[in-house]
Amino acid sequence: MSRRFGSDSETDSLFIALVDELATGLFPAAIMAATYCGVASFVAFRVQSSILWVIAGTGTLIGVSKCLLKRRHPCARQDRPWDRQRAAWWEGANAVFTWGFAVLIGCVAACGFLAVDPALPVLVTGLVFGYCSGTVTRIAFRPRIAGIAICIATVPAILALASRGDSNSIPITTVFTVFLCGGLETIRYLYLNTRRQIILRYDMATLAKNDPLTRLLNRLGLREAYRGVLAEARGNAIAVHCLDLDGLKPVNDQYGHAAGDELLQVIADRLRAVAHGKAAVARVGGDEFVIVQGPILKPDEAAHLAERIDHTIAEPYQIQGREVRVGTSIGFATAPPGSLELDPLMAEPIPRQGEQARRDGSASGRTGGRRPSGREREASNLSRPCTGRATAPPLDHASPAYSMRPRKSDWMMRLDQKLGPMRNLLGVVSKRQF
User: Fold this and answer.
1) CA–CA distances in Å: residue 300 to residues 126, 137, 334, 402
2) From edge to edge, which strands make up the β-sheet containing 288-296?
3) Are residues 197 and 286 in the same domain?
4) Which domain holds residue 338?
5) 316 located within any domain
6) Is residue 184 part of a domain?
7) Is residue 313 in some structural domain?
8) pLDDT of residue 98
9) Are residues 88 and 183 in the same domain?
10) ∠ CA(351), CA(353), CA(356), 5° rounding?
11) pLDDT (0 to 100) of residue 369
12) Are 282 and 274 in contact (CB under 8 A)?
């Protein structure tokens, strides 16, 4: 891990997470502002300086403004997702208030040490040490802000003590200098430690939400990405594509599982490339994938993506020096986002479509061993209620699921099994084949 300071060595997600920490410490910031107001006002009163009264008022105003900035920070975070540029703006705003407050603390400390009143050096010493300790513990994850702030607050006090030239000032100056160096080292340590913890937290979250082989989302990651797609859709329809690879098992049997794993990785890369934009791609089984596409702005947009996926998967692969070809069975369903709730519908398993069809044979329109026609299947599906404890949306909230390139005689039954939960999830109760 890089040991460089600042945003230059930080990824976007790490930078945003560290800037988010600036919103913490509202109560200590309020205590520091009140303490400064009291100490600065007392120093101004004892010194009888109008300039110090202005410094006291200005510092109090800056301290209150910094508290308001911390209060506003979480609200701004919820208004819209942050990017690096927006996070950098908030970091800059915090830096301005922090450094401005440090300048005024340094001025009050210097005046207190230069004053004749023996009580003032004790007060300003407590003020400087309190501010520096709070800055080190609360802002060390932004080391440039914290390091510059404690230097601004401490150096004027050190110079004021050194300018007095008496024997009592030398030990105090030495202590201030040593503590300043120790504070800078503590900032370095806390920054690296906080950074390490955040990186570890992100790594653990990535492992929990991603498939380790293909680096695609897993089921848990799909749930989170699904909510993100719904938010981005902003009232427009979304589409869920379910696909099953045809021919992966022969590759595993003939060339070994290492070749099959390499093939899955290449397929995952192709799916990421074809499902560009804000689509979420997940591997939910050995050879099963789900793509959540949104928003759908054109009627045939989902069908075009399904065709591109089908053609992309059908292209030949070079695996361990051999040309390999696989196919895919793919279906998709579209529905408006307002009618969808993923988590409750995925929480309980529902019967497979084949089992439900056998239980509802009379309602499905089957006669003996004859496979019903497309119109009969659509009509039977429209008359069949959804099963399971999860409740599907109304019929007019979803469009049919479509299947592409049925290569096998039992493909429709397999698609029922693959899309059964997803069809109920989306409220899809009719299917059309082409």
Assistant:
1) 70, 56, 11, 12
2) 280-283, 288-296, 237-246, 327-335, 401-404, 431-433
3) no
4) 219-433
5) yes
6) yes
7) yes
8) 96
9) yes
10) 65
11) 34
12) no
Give me the pLDDT at residue 165, please.
Answer: 78
Q: Which two tokens stand for residue 428?
A: 């899809």
Please report, as a single letter, which amino acid is at residue 341: E
Helices and strands in the chain: count of H runs, count of E runs: 16, 8
Same domain, 111 and 223: no
Helix (H) or strand (E) holding 107: helix 84-114
122 CB-near residues (< 8 Å, 6+ apart)? none
Closest alpha carbon to 120 in 41, 28, 60: 41
What pLDDT is stored for residue 5 in this prediction? 52
The rounded distance, in Å, linking the Cα atoms of 419 and 244 is 10
Q: Which structure tokens are listed for 269?
A: 């890369």
Q: How many domains does the chain divide into?
A: 2
Locate 71 and state its tokens.
């209060």
214 part of a folded domain: no
The reply to whether 196 and 249 lie within a common domain is no
Mapped onto helix, strand or coil, the DSSP state of residue 336 is: coil
pLDDT means per 10 residues, the chain with 434 residues, are 56 88 91 95 93 95 94 83 88 95 95 90 93 93 95 94 84 92 95 91 83 88 83 80 88 90 93 84 89 84 90 91 89 69 40 37 35 37 32 36 41 45 39 32
CB 387 within 8 A of CB 350: yes
Both 193 and 243 in one domain: the answer is no
- From residue 245, how far is each of 137, 150, 392 by CA, in Å? 54, 61, 28
String of DSSP letters for 233-259: HTTSEEEEEEEEEESHHHHHHHH-HHH
Q: How far apart, in whole angstroms, are the C-alpha atoms of residue 126 and residue 221?
A: 50
Q: Residue 123 to residues 34, 130, 179: CA-CA distances in angstroms?
A: 14, 11, 17
Largest distance between two CA atoms of the chain: 110
Read off φ and ψ for residue 117, nearest 5 degrees.
-60, 120
Q: Are residues 364 and 274 in the same domain?
A: yes
Alpha helices in 115-168 (DSSP H): 119-139, 143-164
**Burial (CB count within 10 angstroms: exposed 0-12, middle 13-18, buried 19+), residue 207:** exposed
* Residue-level pLDDT at 129: 94
